[in-house]
Amino acid sequence: MRCGDMSRQESFRVDEFEIPGFEILPDAVEKLWLPGDEVQLGGQVRRLDGHPMTSATVHYRVLCSRDVLAEGDVTPDADGRYALSFLSRDSEYQYIEVAYRVTDATGETQERTQFLFISARIHLDLSLEGSCARADLKVKGAWAQMVESRNPAFRFTVRSPQGGTMPLDVAYTLKNESGGKK
User: Where are the domains of the chain?
Assistant: First the structure.
């Protein structure tokens, strides 16, 4: 490198680069877990040509606040799929880290980490669709401004701590101004 009257020379070494032979694909989290639940996770180990890897060992380690909740080895099935489960803590908030280390028959090793957040609180979005006038709605002690209509269409959306929408049954009761059921 040269700049004006000053010059400097640096050298560096490029090590051999090998393209990985496979990838670890944890399944997306599509379930809502609460504290104390048994958490079930899975995924697939697949060669880069798209074929499943069956001759590998998936080592997993589940951490919560630096404490090991579970650790073990599983073997992928004929489709390259693996499954594991662990019991979450019975505390209100939990940040879970699942570290995967997969070693194939040739000794190649790949690592991947998956993160989960488990909470005792459920985020529920409520929307009322159609043309309506203003009204009040009381949800578990908190008041919110809502709208009213002769034929209201409610939409409930439950969100996981990861932010995705989750399937969950929601029961509700509509009451008129005097507290009677509609």
Answer: 22-119, 123-166
DSSP 22-41: EEEEEPP--S---TTPEEEE
Quick one: which of 153, 132, 154, 135 has its CA closest to 145?
Answer: 135
Asked if residue 74 lies in contact with residue 84, where contact means CB atoms within 8 angstroms, the answer is yes
- Using one digit for the tens of pLDDT, what is the confidence trace for 39-48? 999 999 999 9
Q: Could you tell me the pTM of the whole model?
A: 0.70
**Is the confidence at residue 66, as pLDDT, over 70?**
yes
Q: Which residues contact 27 (CB under 8 A, 6 or more apart)?
A: 41, 42, 43, 44
**Residue 30, exposed/middle/buried by CB under 10 A (0-12, 13-18, 19+)?**
exposed
**What value, to the nearest 5°, has the Cα angle with vertex 42 and ends 52 and 84?**
115
Distance CA 124, CA 3 (A): 61
Position 108: which residue type? E
Residue with structure tokens 């069956």? 54
Do residues 38 and 87 lie in contact, with contact meaning Cβ atoms separated by under 8 Å? Answer: yes
Q: What contacts 62, CB < 8 A, 6 or more positions away?
A: 68, 69, 70, 71, 86, 96, 97, 98
Domain 22-119 class in CATH:
mainly beta
